[in-house]
Amino acid sequence: MRWLLAILTAILLVTQYRLWVGEGSLAEVARLKRQLAEQRGKNTALERENRQLLREVRSLKEGTDGVEAKARYDLGLIEEGETLFIFLDPEETEE
Prior knowledge:
Keywords: Cell cycle, Cell division, Cell inner membrane, Cell membrane, Coiled coil, Membrane, Transmembrane, Transmembrane helix. This is Cell division protein FtsB. It contains 4 helices and no strands. It is mainly α and 95 residues long. The longest helix is centred in the middle third of the chain and has 37 residues. The mean pLDDT is 84.
C-alpha cells in the first residue's frame, strides 16, 4: 500500500511540475501571449507604414505633383522666380 501511495505522489509531483515550471507551463503560456500581443502591435504599425509608402509610390507614379512635393520637402528645391525665406529660431542660433 505504501508503494502505491509513493507512486501516486510521485506522479502527482511530476504533473504539477510540468504545469507550473516545465514546457507548456502556465508561465510560458502567459509569456507567449504577451509576445503575441507585442508582435501584433508591431505588425499593425508596419502595415500602416506600408500603406503610407504604397500611397507615396502611387503618387510618384501618377504625375509630377508628387515628385515636385517630394523634391521641395526632401531637397529644398524651389521653382524659378520663387523666393526662399528661412526663419531661424533665435534661441537655436545663440549656441
